[in-house]
Specification:
about 15% strand, 14 strands, alpha/beta, five-stranded parallel beta sheet, RNA-binding, four-stranded antiparallel beta sheet
Length: about 500
Amino acid sequence: MIKEKLQQLTGAEVTKPKPEFGDYAVFVGKEAQALSEKLKAQSIPEIEKIEVKGQYINFFLSSAYVQQQLYSDFAFDPYLKDKTIIVEYTDPNPFKLFHIGHLMSNAIGESIARLYEASGAKVIRVTWQGDVGMHIAKAVWADGDYAAGAKAFDEDPKAKQEIEAINKKIYDRSDLEINKRYDEGRKASLEYFEKEYERLGSKFDRYFFESEEGPKGLALVKAHPEVFVPSEGAIVFHGEHTRVFVNSQGLPTYEAKELGLNQEKFKLYHPDLSVIVTGNEIKEYFHVLMEAMKLVMPDVAEKTRHVPHGMLRLPTGKMSSRTGDVITADELIEEVREKTKSEEVATGAIKYAILKQGIGNDIIFDREKSIAVHGDTGVYLQYTYARLISILTKSGISNFQFPISNEFLNEKNELNIIKHLIEFPDAVREATERIAPNIMALYCYELANLANRYYEEVRILDDINEDRKQARLVLVRTVADILKRGLGLLGIAAPERI
RNA sequence: GCCCCUGUAGUUCAAUGGAUAGAACAGGAGACUUCUAAGCUCUUAAUAGAGGUUCGAUUCCUCUCGGGGGCACCA
């Protein structure tokens, strides 16, 4: 609110400087002095001091304004109201393990979905599961052992032929024995994934399957011979580099299936935006896919956005389900759970570790550090929330809706906390616009940090001044609420006790 | 070989062309008759190298060196 106002008044971008410089700042160059004189003459009620330092103008909020803001509702800016946004994420493949890479995609996608919702959008959560294709044939060939199938495929020509034959049979369902193995394995996988989704707190509105969207993609490719051309028995697209869309067996590859998927998404939901969250290993491939999509369905391509995230890497190198060198999500969660004695704390710690850094960058997964419970961790945030709640509980007061006098909450640490609370809607908006959950994570950490310092310094319940105590409890209540909302946007639970 | 991403304290991460480059972990020091010590206070320590653009560069451009990923019938 005040930020926008300053922006209008100065015509410059309003930033948050270091606290000693002020509460807000604008860089205006050599005009700083002249402009500041003009602003001072206007006397802005929210601002009690304007200072020029070099080419900056620094603004200090008035205490009265800050205190008053404690009673605002800190509502999100619904700038995406009436928009429909599809968020696709997690995307595990049947017959393969749900590993920490899927966990990463899930944590990021879920947070993005929640941020969009907070900004007013109607969000459709979808996941895209590859239930047909060579990876499935490899697993079926090896009785469910994908790694073994992948190895044989690469090393043994005979196995390769058999696997290709199985792939074809899975598509046309011509072999009763294969059908049985396939159907049972698929069903078991989907049940397993469902448990993972539940454990991680994601509820999908729609499950897309390659077996269903593949034929639609195939039809699309065949309907556009001007885009997709035959080459060495396959059908390819010559984009930035050449990709195969239909293989020489006449079956759609992932590229063609993806065309079918995206067509279907728009047919079903008519979204204003369709976001696809995946690992960045397929970034370049997606580039080419988008090129083809622009030619075949320009309206869909225009509204589709690929959001690649970094990989969870082991210190030893890339994690690969092809070689069986994977850590499953369950394995990791159990390990942390054992340490923290709580499912919510364990999943929260893992999600926070993923979300606190920029989504494009890899995370080096160090067994010890990734399950840390000290410092800038999910545990710290949950601990802070639980402590705040504990203070409120012990106060014996349940209704904090009373007006307070301005003679309280005017200590520097109290004003600083409220100033940070004021930033909440801005942080949410920025995190949403930039598709950057780490901005939200940082906001929560800073709030928790302020809160921890506050209750270390101030013994709230021992206060002999009853009115001041009540005012401080209102502050504690509000900080707890915002912290919980912030954690919610990260998909992290806020238990009242940990 | 070609293409893309990346290089910030000992380590893992922040910083969208602006002020003295922020945190956490690890290391060092400390407070406490404690509303949850999973906490708090103080402290040591960094922009890979060389050019360029700019009033101003961790950020943009070029080259060198390091790390990762991708390069047609996997996803």
